[in-house]
Amino acid sequence: MVDSGKWNCERCKWERFCLLEEKLQNDLKRIEDLKLMNKKLEEQLRVAATGNEIGRQDTVKEHHEGEQCLVWVIR
């Protein structure tokens, strides 16, 4: 198959090419998966940094003259 780092026949060259092309496609898919994961992590960091978690609820006591109210704040 290989002689001094060179491919002997066209079939060997074609097989090598197909293997490299398959590896490239797998690597490109992995890159896209990593980009998606990175985007999700960046969003989580952004949310954590601002303290605005989706669906987070706070209770706030408001005082009115002679009354008290409990208000739900949804962020």
Structure, described:
With 75 residues, the chain is an alpha+beta fold. It has one domain. The protein has one helix and four strands; from the N terminus they run ββαββ. A two-stranded antiparallel ribbon has the order 1-2. The longest helix has 41 residues. The protein is rod-shaped and about 95 Å long. The termini are far apart. The mean pLDDT is 77.
Write the layout of secondary structure elements.
Elements: E1 2-3, E2 6-7, H1 10-50, E3 57-64, E4 67-74
Antiparallel strand pairs: 1-2, 3-4
Could you provide a short overview of the structure?
This protein has 75 residues and is an alpha+beta fold.
Strand content: 25-35%
Distance between the termini: 64 Å
Number of domains: 1
Q: Poorly predicted ranges (pLDDT <50, ≥5 residues)?
A: none
Helix count from the secondary structure assignment: 1
Mean pLDDT: 77
Report the radius of gyration as a whole number of Å. 29 Å
| Shape, principal axes of CA atoms | rod-shaped
Helical proportion, percent range: 40-55%
- Secondary structural class: alpha+beta
Number of strand elements: 4
Strand order of the largest sheet: 1-2
What is the chain-wise order of helices and strands? EEHEE
